[in-house]
Task: structure prediction
Amino acid sequence: MHDLASRLRQLPPSCGPVRLIGVDGHAGSGKSTFAGHLADALGGAPVLRLDDIASHDELFDWTGRLLSEVITPLSHGETAHYAVYDWHARRFGPSRTLPPAPVILLEGVGAGRRALRPHLARLLWMELPREESWARGRSRDGAELREFWEGWVAAEQRHFAEDPSRPFADLLVRQCQKGYAITKGPAGTVGPDRDVTHGDDPSAMC
Result:
């Protein structure tokens, strides 16, 4: 993980001075947990979670807001300001700031969509089948969100049918019993596949 972090730091900036790293995958695939581990390995890199950008009314139609509120300021080396959605209150709350750090993780379903890929230094895809991911997500969220999940699954299927991310992933991330296995993705062009675990920290391919 630390070797992967080191390699990401060495990438050329992709969004102004920022190396923007996308972490995409199906809902329930473990994106948030992985992004948290990677952020720690990066010394506390900021994580922009797309759950804060999306809303009940715009599960996937948030591209314009993200570009105007976050991507454009960062591309100019300026601090971004974006409103955070409260999923319980069903409204946007106070604005949050996001300074142009050397590395920022963009985590969430749709992080690798075509409108964002030109701004990404790398795209990582959580390699877990959608049915297994959704089952994990439903189990995590419980019966209270059963109706939401029914709508979400249909919306996610439509999104990836129209704007897939996995074919453009540089790296595929698989969760193992200990740590993660990280291998070259469909868009990756560098070196042989290698495994990465938290335990022994071997070299990561990036």
